[in-house]
Design goal:
- The protein contains one helix and six strands, in the order ββββββα.
- A hairpin with a 6-residue loop joins β1 and β2.
- The chain has a three-stranded antiparallel sheet, with no helix packed on it. Strands 4-5-6 form a three-stranded antiparallel sheet, with helices on one face.
- The chain folds into two domains: about 40 residues; about 45 residues.
- It is mostly beta strands.
Length: about 90
Amino acid sequence: MAWFLNHYKCERCKRRWADEWSCMCDDECPHCGARYMTPHTSEDLTTLIEQEGSNFVVRWSPETAEHDPDYRVLGYFPTEQEAIAFLSAD
């Protein structure tokens, strides 16, 4: 399942917040309760490359994920470039 970190700015109180969702959806302002705030930017977190020790780990959020990304490890790579190449070949 796609996974996104959405960034919002409330049109009523001008406060900012971020929230993770399975889509780029509207949200309710956690500060003043204004509804239907559309994200101004979103980061796609469906696949991630994270460094663990000397390796780079590729993680993916499967279609079965529902309320959290439920990341699965797709592979370990000695360099970030190899991890990027692996994702590019997909």
